[in-house]
Amino acid sequence: MEADMNQKRHFLRNAGAVLSLAVLAGCTGMNTTQSGAVGVNRTQYMSSMVPSQALEQEATQQYADILKEAQAKGLLDRDAQQLARVRNISQRLIAQAGVFRPDAAGWKWEVHVLSSDEINAWCMPGGKIAVYTGLIGKIKPSDDELAAVLGHEIAHALREHARERVSQQMATNLGLSVLSIATGSSVASDLGGELTSVMFTLPNSRTHETEADRMGVELAARAGYDPRAAVTLWQKMGAASQGNAPPEILSTHPSAASRISDLQAAAQKVMPLYEQSKGQAAR
């Protein structure tokens, strides 16, 4: 009996080591962006199985498919004035992206407005942006607040958060496959899925949101938009979720007090950049 227990302990230790090696084997530590004034400098781990170029190509194709479907339904860029507003704000933010990564100037940026009741906006890898009319119509953001949304989404793309999450998933799935083979049990995969959710999905998602918040605030300030508007924006987002399902953009990250506090601190840090930008525009 004792021998069996020792054998099991030894086996699980080995299996755990194999899992850890499998998870780490395909990933390389890097930093996709410069830190900026807000100091985003966390080491990221990207898998060689998820090349940046390949992910951007996939994003470009998916974006084209989304636009094609929206156009077929008469839901693409229906309001010329609204589209011009979104594109103007986006271009001012994109012009500041080089602060975090100079190569973003060479991205094939696209900006479109989709008619949908969802309160949502996103930026795919490589700079493919979409804003939903539900965000504009229901939240009624000022230009400063809309800049906060767009800056946040652009920051996700600059930081390559999508690639990082795909890398984590691929590495984790590889490790779980090794562990399942080692144990000969499907239960390990279920347990592994729960562990992955706690260790990877939730913590990293929160980390990604914080990084995008901070970088977005800096992009807005440098582009001449009041960074403090990020606070009022997320307060509006939070209010929109009261008594209803949260806006899609907040589906996994409600606007908690800690987030507001962090945004306030980030906004104060970049206020000099905002004042400088305003001063230059006034000349």
From TrEMBL:
Keyword hit for Manganese: no
Superkingdom as given in the UniProt entry: Bacteria
Keyword Transferase: no
GO biological process terms on file: proteolysis involved in protein catabolic process
Cofactor: Zn(2+)
Pfam short name (any one): Peptidase_M48
Cofactor, free-text remark: Binds 1 zinc ion per subunit.
InterPro entries named among the record's database cross-references: Mito/Outer_Membr_Metalloprot (IPR051156), Peptidase_M48 (IPR001915)
GO molecular function, a single term: metalloendopeptidase activity
Coiled-coil zones: none
CDD domains in the cross-refs: M48C_Oma1_like
Limits of the Peptidase M48 domain: 82-265
Keywords: Hydrolase, Metal-binding, Metalloprotease, Protease, Zinc
GO cellular component, one term: membrane
Family under the similarity heading: Belongs to the peptidase M48 family.
Protein name as it appears in the record: Peptidase family M48
Lineage, uppermost ranks: Bacteria, Pseudomonadati, Pseudomonadota, Betaproteobacteria, Burkholderiales
